[in-house]
TrEMBL record:
Mg(2+) 1 binds at residues 291, 304. It catalyses: 2 D-alanine + ATP = D-alanyl-D-alanine + ADP + phosphate + H(+). One of its GO terms (cellular component) is cytoplasm. Pathway: Cell wall biogenesis; peptidoglycan biosynthesis. The keyword ATP-binding applies. This is D-alanine--D-alanine ligase. Cell wall formation.
Length: 347
């Protein structure tokens, strides 16, 4: 099962080389001189988005590109009309950024942008749908159920939770079906802790994904579209003093990262292949980050995918790029160049 974009989004435009040159020639070639980075928004991940936006803007400015950072508010569309950027990079985490809606608006306006199109973004943003898609592509993912808050009111919470534990066992991971940065996510080891985890989850959304917790090595594999198709960057291993929650992700000290991850060469190739396959199956574009657990047998279990990976000083995508020996400014320039030329090739 592969998510497809509309005809515009499926055009096989030339892909960027590491220095940002797409290799296109002729009248359709458009250099990137002016970029608008969208950061902020009104989701729970606003502060992370702002930090990501500042980091990417600084890296792009270092390559000589004129960069503007703008929030998503009533002044944005007049600003875009005035500035007329070559490309927009949405670095919005959470709703309105990763759910495809900002892409819909930019396409309505005919503005080039970085990243996955609206339809594939919506599929990736919804964790159960993403899990179904990757299952169809032959990728393993922990067993799970999806339950709306309304069902607990109608059937009674405890009988439903007892059925969940009876079917999936313990430990479990409870998370909102939409959202990121581990907001509303709880690792549950005891059945008596499950009701509290559901309450925490429903504070961030009205549908919960409850999946069997897999013990193993937690890693993230970033993917970028390159000259020969999607390419996996080195996996980053995550070691924390507890749950890899919001605090552990964005406040230095609680988490150690190993980039590249401490994997055998065979398993490192395996996880890279899984991330690329997920990227392709979900119809993603430009860049993505897939979160995985490597179990005791060396199998990679898909957890979720991010179409707008964090770019802060502790984020996993920049660490992976640096582990690959890529200069962040050059890599980001290549990514924005691709965002322009993919649409130029379709005109």
């Amino acid at each position: 099962m592969t998510v497809t974009e509309d005809a515009t989004e499926n055009v096989s435009a030339d892909l960027p080389t590491p220095d940002g040159d797409t290799g296109t020639t002729g009248p359709d070639r458009r250099p990137v001189e002016r970029v608008v980075v969208l950061a902020g928004g009104l989701s729970h991940e606003r502060e992370v988005s702002l930090r990501s936006g500042r980091r990417v803007a600084d890296a792009l400015r270092g390559t000589g590109i004129e960069v503007f950072v703008h929030d998503v508010d009533a002044s944005l569309l007049p600003f875009l009309d005035e500035i007329k950027p070559d490309v927009v990079w949405p670095l919005l985490h959470g709703a309105s950024g990763e759910d495809g809606s900002i892409g819909d608006v930019l396409e309505l306006l005919g503005i080039d942008y970085v990243g996955t199109g609206p339809r594939a973004s919506r599929a990736a943003w919804n964790k159960p749908i993403a899990k179904n898609v990757v299952l169809g592509a032959g990728i393993d993912t922990p067993d799970y159920v999806t339950l709306p808050q309304s069902l607990f009111r109608e059937l009674g919470a405890q009988p439903v939770l007892d059925a969940v534990v009876g079917r999936l066992g313990l430990p479990l991971v409870v998370k909102p079906t939409r959202g990121g940065s581990a907001l509303g996510v709880t690792l549950v080891r005891r059945a008596e802790d499950l009701p509290r985890a559901m309450v925490d989850c429903f504070s961030y959304g009205d549908i919960a994904l409850i999946e069997r917790a897999v013990e193993g090595t937690e890693i993230a594999v970033s993917v970028v579209d390159g000259p020969d198709g999607p390419e996996a960057l080195p996996a980053v291993e995550i070691v924390t003093d507890g749950t890899y929650d919001y605090d552990a992700r964005y406040n230095p000290g609680r988490t150690r990262y190993y980039a590249p991850a401490r994997l055998t060469p065979e398993i490192a190739r395996h996880v890279g292949d899984v991330a690329v396959r997920a990227h392709v199956a979900l119809g993603l574009r430009g860049l993505s980050r897939t979160d995985l657990i490597v179990d005791a047998d060396g199998n990679a279990q898909f957890l979720e995918v991010n179409v707008a990976p964090g770019m802060t000083e502790t984020s996993l995508f920049p660490q992976a790029a640096q582990a690959a020996g890529r200069d962040l400014g050059d890599l980001y320039r290549a990514i924005v160049t691709q965002g322009v030329n993919r649409r130029a090739a379709s005109r």
